[in-house]
User: Which sequence fits this backbone?
């Protein structure tokens, strides 16, 4: 079934509303509990055309593609948009969509406090969660507290399975190729947890086993796109043993909370997530996090797979590279537009990097 | 802090620096410059401005051991730091100065050699370039004891100050201001007030001084007055002909940014206001034959301010308002001595770059009407995404609603390597034609 068919069936058969969600952190459990299917918009496979009339050439392709999707009329079946406060570009994109495009689709916003976290941040986050619920209720009807509790538990199950997959991969106990791994976990960007959970379980059971021989690397950045990188690494026998990608490892592996209050549990999840540029984590926290991953997976280097013009990520790179080099680890920085493939020149750089760590 | 160094600092502030400034003024008088026929007489207050800013930078050499030093973002609520007697330094202001002195490419390139990508904000690259090289047009910058950032202008400052905190090995205090996607709520305000409460112990620790509520109220009152007076200064440009240009205002902005909350800034704006009012009474315009009135959107192109002002003035076109200069007159005047924390939270989270684009559009519409603007020049600044994303739509909508033609100049605030002379000239010429049709 295609993604489009799946989404239409969710709407028609399950009566679910579809929400277009822009990157990156958002309380998905609240949406599930309100019978909304979040459909994340990271890198729709489109050619940017109309968005150039609204956005300058120096704006990242994630933002451009998101806007393009709307401008090409591909969001007609979407019942709402949610814009988390991720970076300056998403922030202004939210305003363009909600203030200038004259859409009928409701737009929601979600502000998450920035680190370093204090008691004030925690309280604010809780209030933000509840505030979002109140706003959504005007469109979707009342939220049922016990349903939310169940969905929070479901969210934990998804995170637990993903964590297990990540652990197995890092310990060389997963047979899946880089390409397959990311294809599967990225399906969580639009599948309902009721469908995503069995998919993950199945993938886990068929992929257990000794990983392939060859050097390992960590992938850091926003999104594993252009996907060619995964293919090249697969072909060269290099395993992505772990990642520090915003749309994967940084937000999917939330810690489990035992708190019975679903809002408190969601807050614990959020504040327990790995360090991230979009949350203003310190350079030290980010470097320590990378080192932990490297230690666990015995990776020989880190590929910083940057989206062109992404200030959010690019600022931290010099320090991280310096720290990695101090420890004798290889680094490679690539910045390119998503969906535009890897140029021959970039492919050569990847190959040279692989030779270095082999 | 050492007593001796403190005495030395105050000696330099009250006697040494003024004497030196007088001396350099005398020296400068010997070199007369020929008047530019495109402009009216120069503002006399500019000399005073130069003195104040030169003294401010000069004094930074005597801060070590005398005063705690904080590096601050332009939109941060500096009033709180003033209670603890911090010497405040503004990297963005320094970046603008480097840009105006055409040092942007050199300093940016140094940061780039250290891995900072050319796509990053050039204020940040200049600042990091200075960190790695020590190069600055002001001799020497004071080493920070504390970094104070607010993301009410952009998230970029947060990434940038994180790097500074790492290099300078000093604490970073972030004042996190929830973005106004729609409106500011009570829980946004309480979050910000709680942050102030939480940061006070660290400020006490770094400065060695206790928080003093009365002193805080006094500072709030001066900041408010300063902002109101700055607002009055800008409002003089509603007069036709306007007594100054927005390009002048870009320069006169420095005290309200860097010395906000200090009497020297307030005193300066009173002097400037007096001069502008006198000009209005005498009918003196900043340009001799003001035919058209323009609005500037975004941060200036610092290395081109003079050239651009000349090009437009030669056509009898004067810039009379800008969203940028207006930012310091927009909300700070709302500070309330009786509710200093709440009002500060509100004032600082409601600044132009922390509000949605509908607000920006309304503000621009209001300015266009109040200042009787005929055309709009939009600087699409590569460095500044929060200011630039949405500008294409703003230009279009303003044309539709108010029939105000606009031109977009694709450039950067300080990095002249991305300024394209030919392209800009062609666009400006097309704009001139549209303005005359
Ligand atoms: S790629 Fe970077 S700049 Fe673009 S939306 Fe994501 S975080 Fe923002
Ligand atoms: S120029 Fe823009 S991005 Fe750079 S510091 Fe200023 S507000 Fe932030």
Assistant:
């Amino acid at each position: 079934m295609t993604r489009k068919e799946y989404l239409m069936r969710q709407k028609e058969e399950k009566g679910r509303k579809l929400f277009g969600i822009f990157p990156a952190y958002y309380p998905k459990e609240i949406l599930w509990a309100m019978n909304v299917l979040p459909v994340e918009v990271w890198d729709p496979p489109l050619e940017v055309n109309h968005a150039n009339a609204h956005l300058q050439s120096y704006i990242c392709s994630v933002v451009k593609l998101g806007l393009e999707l709307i401008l090409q009329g591909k969001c007609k079946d979407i019942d709402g948009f949610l814009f988390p406060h991720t970076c300056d570009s998403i922030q202004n994109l939210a305003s363009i969509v909600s203030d200038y495009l004259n859409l009928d689709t409701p737009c929601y916003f979600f502000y998450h406090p920035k680190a370093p976290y204090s008691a004030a941040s925690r309280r604010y986050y809780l209030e933000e969660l509840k505030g979002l619920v109140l706003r959504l209720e005007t469109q979707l009807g009342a939220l049922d507290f016990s349903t939310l509790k169940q969905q929070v538990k479901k969210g934990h199950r998804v995170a637990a399975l993903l964590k297990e997959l990540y652990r197995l991969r890092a310990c060389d106990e997963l047979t899946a190729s880089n390409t397959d791994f990311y294809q599967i976990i990225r399906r969580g960007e639009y599948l309902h947890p009721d469908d995503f959970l069995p998919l993950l379980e199945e993938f886990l059971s068929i992929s257990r086993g000794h990983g392939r021989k060859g050097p390992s690397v960590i992938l850091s950045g926003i999104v594993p796109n252009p996907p060619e990188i995964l293919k090249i690494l697969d072909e060269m026998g290099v395993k992505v043993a772990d990642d520090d990608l915003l749309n994967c490892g940084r937000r999917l592996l939330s810690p489990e909370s035992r708190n019975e209050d679903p809002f408190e549990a969601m807050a614990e999840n959020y504040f327990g997530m790995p360090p991230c540029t979009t949350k203003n984590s310190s350079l030290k926290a980010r470097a320590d996090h990378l080192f932990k991953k490297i230690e666990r997976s015995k990776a020989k280097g880190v590929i910083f797979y940057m989206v062109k013009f992404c200030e959010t990520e690019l600022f931290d790179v010099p320090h991280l590279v310096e720290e990695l080099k101090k420890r004798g680890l290889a680094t490679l920085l690539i910045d390119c537009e998503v969906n535009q493939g890897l140029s021959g020149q970039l492919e050569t750089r990847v190959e040279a990097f692989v030779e270095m760590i082999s | 802090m050492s007593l001796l160094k403190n005495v030395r600092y105050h000696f330099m502030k009250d006697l040494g620096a003024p004497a030196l400034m007088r001396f350099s003024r005398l020296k400068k008088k010997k070199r007369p410059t020929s008047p530019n026929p495109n402009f009216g007489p120069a503002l006399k207050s500019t000399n005073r401005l130069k003195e104040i800013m030169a003294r401010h930078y000069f004094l930074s050499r005597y801060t070590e051991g005398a005063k705690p030093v904080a590096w601050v973002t332009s939109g941060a609520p500096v009033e709180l730091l003033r209670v603890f007697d911090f010497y405040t330094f503004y990297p963005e202001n320094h970046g603008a100065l480097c840009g105006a002195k055409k040092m942007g490419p050199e300093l940016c390139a140094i940061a780039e050699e250290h891995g900072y990508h050319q796509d990053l904000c050039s204020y940040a690259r200049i600042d990091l370039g200075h960190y790695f090289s020590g190069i600055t047009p002001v001799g020497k910058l004071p080493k920070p004891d504390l970094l104070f950032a607010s993301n009410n202008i952009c998230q970029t400052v947060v990434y940038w100050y994180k790097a500074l905190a790492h290099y300078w090995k000093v604490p970073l205090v972030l004042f996190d201001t929830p973005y106004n996607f729609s409106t500011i709520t009570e829980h946004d305000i309480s979050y910000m007030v709680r942050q102030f409460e939480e940061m006070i112990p660290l400020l006490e620790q770094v400065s060695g001084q206790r928080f003093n509520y009365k002193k805080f109220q006094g500072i709030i009152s001066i900041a408010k007055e300063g902002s109101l007076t700055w607002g009055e200064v800008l409002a003089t440009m509603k007069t036709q002909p306007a007594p100054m240009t927005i390009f002048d205002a870009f320069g006169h902005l420095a005290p309200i940014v860097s010395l906000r909350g200090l009497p020297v800034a307030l005193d300066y704006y009173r002097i400037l206001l007096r001069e502008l009012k006198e000009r209005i009474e005498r009918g003196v315009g900043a340009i001799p034959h003001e035919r058209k009135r323009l609005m500037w959107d975004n941060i200036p192109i610092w290395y081109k301010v003079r050239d651009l002002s000349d090009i437009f003035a030669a056509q009898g076109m004067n810039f009379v308002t800008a969203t940028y200069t207006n930012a310091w007159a927009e909300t700070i005047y709302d500070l309330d001595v009786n509710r200093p924390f709440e009002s500060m939270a509100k004032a600082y989270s409601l600044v132009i770059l922390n509000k949605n684009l509908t607000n920006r559009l309304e503000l621009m519409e209001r300015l266009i009407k109040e200042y009787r603007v005929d055309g709009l020049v939009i600087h699409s600044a590569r460095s500044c995404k929060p200011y630039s994303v949405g500008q294409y739509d703003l230009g279009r909508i303003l044309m539709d609603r108010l029939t105000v033609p606009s031109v977009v100049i694709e450039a950067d605030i300080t990095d002249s390597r991305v300024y394209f002379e030919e392209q800009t000239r062609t666009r400006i010429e097309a704009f001139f034609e549209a303005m005359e049709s």
